[in-house]
Structures
1.
Amino acid sequence: MIKPIIIIGSGLAAYTLIREYRKINAEHPITLVTQEAGDFYSKPMLSTAIASQKSAEQLVTSSAAKMAEQLNLVIHTHATVKQIDPAHQKISVALKDGQLVDIGYSQLVLTLGADQIRVPIDGDASEAILSVNDLYEYAEFRKRLDGKKKVVILGAGLIGCEFANDLAVGGYQVELVDLADQALSRLLPKLIAQALEQKLSDLNVIWHLGTSIQSVSHDGDQLQVMLTNGQIIHADLVLSALGLVPRIQLAKEAGILVHRGIVVNRQLETSIQNIYSLGDCAEVEGQVLPYVMPIMQAARTLAMVLARQDASLVYPAMPVMIKTPALPLIVSPPPIGSSGSWSINELENGMEGLFHNDQSELIGFALAGSATSQRATLTKLLPPILGAT
Ligand SMILES: Cc1cc2nc3c(=O)[nH]c(=O)nc-3n(C[C@H](O)[C@H](O)[C@H](O)COP(=O)(O)OP(=O)(O)OC[C@H]3O[C@@H](n4cnc5c(N)ncnc54)[C@H](O)[C@@H]3O)c2cc1C
């Protein structure tokens, strides 16, 4: 019997890869194992769906059963992979009913995603701190929001700012807390960040920059949130949005090389033969890029590799849209640690931030409002993130 390709996970990385692979090979058996229900949804929608009152079910665009039928898959849902045994090319899976089974693979793909970063916070209500990184957490967040008014968000990065905008439009009072002295400190130059802060302030978002949350405690029906600067906020809910950390534990326990993410080469192969990885859990040449566009690129390459075709991953410049309708933003940040400087051009209803290195080459940009129309033109001028080898 032919052993299947096994894919662990049912996020964008898993399903995009399978779609690409099925364009090349419609028949080879594929088994997908996922802790979740396996339904297909677009994760970026999670931070823009509260204002429009979408339920978790409404975000699902295709059920697991439909995906299995369309893509000719065997899917094990609510099943957790406990162990990978590379020597015998098999995985141990705890199935929905509690049974532990071994499944053999010809090739194994890890699309395990990433966890939200959580920092220790004092107080007797730390269990009340939520994060939203999948459909279940979204459903829980919506349930807890019911009848409530005020949300404190910890972290003014991409996810924190998107939720702040969406919740404010949905009629909630939002207070945003971040240790940095500006919004989106890893992605935006100060002047454009200030423009975003102003636009969100216009929606009554209150900013607490240069501080963090010390403790969260119960206070009657509400929560008392104490900041490290001593200020106290009363709120109904606290949402933690501090960024992501790749899920590497399963790979590490199997002896696969991990660093910040699961280390893969340009063929998306890990340090162990026939085991591959892509998506938020993977690290390619030191780059962990937890966004949709890198998944698309990697999925196309890996589909070819799994089909035994020659392919090597290339990452062009891949700008990210930040879904803050109060001030639409598109960013392509310079590589971390680049030396150079930002120049900002003020346009009518927009701002164009260009980052040039010391050789005067354009290596990053941040576009706000009307300047977002420059996306395609400027992207062509940027160097690739990973060029052809
Ligand atoms: C709120 C939000 C907004 C975002 N907005 C944008 C955006 O605007 N633009 C953009 O480019 N990106 C955005 N992103 C990032 C983007 O959504 C992610 O990069 C992408 O969805 C990651 O897909 P993935 O398949 O790698 O991981 P995931 O979707 O996290 O999938 C991981 C899968 O692995 C499974 N799994 C893990 N361990 C096991 C195990 N041991 N056994 C079985 N199953 C396991 C999980 O159950 C899950 O199914 C956003 C992310 C969030 C959270």
2.
Amino acid sequence: MPTCRHCSSTYPREQFIHGNGPMSQVCVRCGVEKGLVSKEDAANMFDSGTGSARLQIMARRYSIFLYIPLLWTLWVMVLKDVQPWGFYFLLLFLVLTLITPVWFIYRGGQYSGDMARLTPAYDRPKGH
Ligand SMILES: [Zn+2]
């Protein structure tokens, strides 16, 4: 993946503006900020609404991997020695932990579809 020469960020080729000289190797966000390309021409730029929607979908997909260790920590700290709820919650968390990777893979298609829906339609210019 190429690197923008203004902000040194690495993006896919689609996130770069098209052109030579000062417009080469410039990401679309720096291109708009530095006035090299107008916002209307930068069809491939994520506006703040699209950006936050994409972040929200990503957070929803990966947040389960934050909750599983949190639940296990709470179980060890609070519920482990409580009879019989400690055992019931142990079984519940075991099932949850084992189902999570399967569910994660199963929902991968939905995630890709949502991300594609939130990607602006943009034809990559020839040579880019
Ligand atoms: Zn940049």
